[in-house]
Amino acid sequence: MSNKPFLGILPSTWVYGILILLTFVTYSIGEQGLGGLQISLLVLGIAIIKGHLVGSYFMGLGQLRGLWRWPVSVWLIIPGALIATAFTLSY
Length: 91
Prior knowledge:
single chain; 3 helices
């Protein structure tokens, strides 16, 4: 990842905007009262994407290589997979 501005805006600012947009999406889903397995998995997927963006850009893990980059990714993937499995089995 580079810190080179795109259209005059730093990458961390773009990521912050994306995080705000994804938060609005999940808020809208909740306000509309949408439900079901697909919606639940969508919200879970958005949460995992947001966690990955925070880890990569704001915790500085995107600049690391090798083993040090894996703990947060594994921390997101394993509970995410377990939650998705629980949602799917309970549906």
